[in-house]
Structure formats: C-alpha cells, structure tokens
Amino acid sequence: MALFESAERVEYPAEQVYAWHRRPGALTRLSPEWAQTVIEESYPPLAPGTRARLRTSVPGTAGTVRVPFVSQHADGPVPRSFVDRMVKGPLASWTHTHTFADPTSGTGSEREAGESCIVHDRIEYEVLPQRLRGAGRFTDAFTAKAMESMLRKTFADRTARLKADLEFQESLGAVAHGRRLNILIGGASGLVGAQVAALLSTAGHEVRTLVRGDRRREDQVEWDPGRSRLDPGEVAWADVVIHLGGASIATRFTAANKRRILESRIDSTRLIADTCASLMPEDRPEAFVCASAIGAYGKDRGDQVLTEDAATGEGFLAEVCRGWESEAARVEDLGMRRVSVRTGIVLTSLGGVLKLQLPLYLVGAGGPLGNGRQWFSWISLDDIASIYAWAVMDASVRGPVNAVAPEPVRQKEFAKTLGRALRRPAVVPVPKAGPAVLLGSEGAEELALANQRVAPERLVTAGYPFRHPHLDEALAFTLPSR
After folding, report:
1. Domain span at residue 306?
2. pLDDT digit string, tens, across residues 212-253
3. Which domain of life is it from (predicted)?
C-alpha cells in the first residue's frame, strides 16, 4: 500500500473552505483539466454512498486518452472531513481522505486560526493487486515515482485553483455587494456551461439548470425549446438567466447542419425572451447573459483590431451571431440588462480545437494551420467561465462583450508556443485541405482558418481580472507539461 500526503495552507477560514467543497460544482472546479474529466458529480454533494464519475488521464497522453474512474463518498474520521473510495478505475485500490483543519503552526494566534486553514489530503492506494506487486523491482520503483510525481502536480494544481477561485469569488461578492442570487442556466451540461454553473454554485449562489427530458435532481428544470415549453414560474424564480446552449459548430457546414446550428440558438433564445415577456415586470429576471461568438466579425478581417464597436462581418457564423444577439436583445425592451458573450477559441485539453490538435503535436507532426499568418483570438476555459460569472454580477456590463484574452497571436506563434509547452517540434504546417476534410471548405474557412484580431475592450474597462492573459500561462494551466 502506497501513501501520498499533501498539506496546503489556504488563507480562508476552515469552515468556509469546507463549505465550499460541499457545494455542487466543487469537484468540477478542482479537477485539473489535464488530469480529469468530470462526467457526473455526486448529488447531493458528498452525501455518504453517493458516487462521482470521472475519466482520468493516462500518463504521457496529455489528456488525449482517459479511462473511467468512479469514487464513492463516505463520512470522514473527524469533523470537517470526508472520504472518497474508488469503486471502479485503473488502480487496485484508492482511498482519499480530505480534512480541513485550523492551522497549528506559526504564531498560533486566535486571529490566524480563524482566518486560514490547512487543506490536508491523504491518499492510500495500490497501483497493482498485491499478488502482482514485486514482480519487477525496477517496474515497481518506476511506477511509484511516476505516481508520486503525478499526484504532487495534481494537488499543486488543485490548490492553486482553489485559492484562485476563492479570491475571485470574493471579488465578485464585492462587485455585487454581497448579494446571493438565484441563477437559471441553459447549456450547463456543455464544456463551458458546466464550469460556469460550478463557479457560481461554489460561490454560494443558488443555481438551477435547464435540461431536456425528465429532471433527475432537485436543481434541474425541464424545458423543450423545439416545442416552446418552459415554465414561466422557473424563470420568475431567477434573478439572472444564463444561456449557452446550441448545436455544435464543429461539423461540416452542410445545409442540414447549418439549419440545426442556427435554429438551435434562435429557438432557445427566443423562448427565454418570450417567457420573460410573459411575466409581470416585477417578476422578470434582472439580466439575461447569452452566449455568442467572435464569429460575429466574419471569417477574415485582416489586421483590423476588432473591439465591440466594430461592425459585424460576412459569412454563415456572422449571420448566426447577428440573429442570436438580436433575439437576446429583445429583453432590453422589457427593462432587463442583456449581455452577449462573444467567445473566442476556448483553449482546453478537455475539448475543442486544442484537444483535436494534441495528437498531432504529441507525435511531432504539429504546426500552424494554413499560411500561419491568421490572427488567433483565444481564451482559457477558466477565464471564459469567470467572464460569465463577472457578467452576471457586475451590473455595468451590458451589450456585446468580447470574451478573449488581451493578447491574440498569429497561428505561427500559437503553434510555436504549443510545441514548446509540450516539448515537441511545431514545424509541420497543416495545409488548408486538412481542416476541409473534417469541416468542408466553408467550415474550414470560418473555423480553423478564420482571421480575427479581437480585443476585450469592455472587459478591460469593467476591470475584469484575467486569470490567464498570456498564451504560455493558459497552455501551462491546461497541459501536464511544465
């Protein structure tokens, strides 16, 4: 039986940190992108006997290969503690005890004890069943060293994200003057939506999610945009509605797919706006924060710096975004605040463009797309989730908002930085025909080969604190190599 322990000091009271871990979304927020994919959190959170379902990364694959891992929760041995035990996964056994204690070192003053805590993680595990251990001493030693290294990095990343979230959520509380909101979210099962819901829930806000089909949890609300079905009472419950839903655009732009992409966004956004209009003014939500994309600016704007005041462009995605934002803007006539989040390319090893490119880079065949001169306006997964939360809480944020990092790069620079992060060459250019095989010529031009130099002017003006303003920082956050 191997043992791993980590003890990290966090400058917040132990009771507050423990409560944070017991809220929906804590596991989603804590899981390093390169190490774990959260499929389903336990519900109610951490209740004894409930299970969390994940997929954990195979070492050396940069998250491109992930295997099932299911853990079951139990009460911990002391107050402010809990235990996770693996019931399905790649290891022989795994027992993780989490404890949140007042500090016993340092000055020992009452003020210190009340304002910080020690997050202690103790993991007892076996990589191989007992009958197979010792078959090769070299293999055993190598495995033990690899596991120790991976766990050390995993918990360093967990602690860094916990501290960053607590600090960010504290700043959000200041912006909103300490209000706790009721928030209704559409698209919460998606890559970005799951992080948005988790970030707001762990901050102490009451979050309900819109789901198609039958609800399975108390915090779920049924709806069906195709049949214009949404309970007005659920919308009236909300202080803010967030909507990130829509069919994936990572597909060939056939006539049928284009119709599905457009209608899935227009119909669902229209349903929310219509439902708000059906309510008495005093029952309407205060704000509607709706997704959009930098595709609004068109597929090729050259070197023009595109702030929110720039005109929209040409192409299918620009058409989709104009219709999408127009439907969302209808709530402004009802006296509601509206925000359309024009999202850039989200960089995460959990999905999207980066996940698709990683296999090529890992075998040394990565490189820039097209001629490499296109502007690449990106955003980290943590930042896009935080931008949505900021837009919810800061009443000064309204209208279109460019959700991109402040430093766009050209494709050549992106390829070079990604190769350096993975310690791989990045010199093999991908011709235009490559993306066209997957997306068709139109889809390739509007997605993989788009040229948009976008600036987050309104976020900067609002004082939004970027977590990952630089590309190398964002890649270091989502990839295992440091």
Report:
1. 179-478
2. 988 999 999 999 999 999 999 999 999 999 999 899 998 999
3. Bacteria
CA distance 40 to 399: 33
At 83, is the secondary structure helix, strand, or coil? strand
235 Cβ contact list (under 8 Å, min separation 6):
184, 241, 272, 275, 276, 279, 284, 285
* Cα separation, 377 vs 305, whole angstroms: 11
Length reported for the chain:
482
Which CATH number does the domain housing residue 28 bear? Answer: 3.30.530.20
Q: What is the pTM of this model?
A: 0.94
The rounded distance, in Å, linking the Cα atoms of 350 and 355 is 6
Residues 168 and 188 in one domain: no
Task: Print burial letters for 211-234: b (CB count within 10 Å at least 16), e (below 16).
Answer: beeeeeeebbbebebeeeebeeeb
Q: What is the pLDDT of residues 43-92, one digit of tens each?
A: 999 999 999 999 999 888 888 999 999 999 999 999 999 999 999 999 99
CATH number of the domain that residue 453 is part of: 3.40.50.720
Q: How far is Cα 135 from Cα 156, in angstroms, rounded to an integer?
A: 32
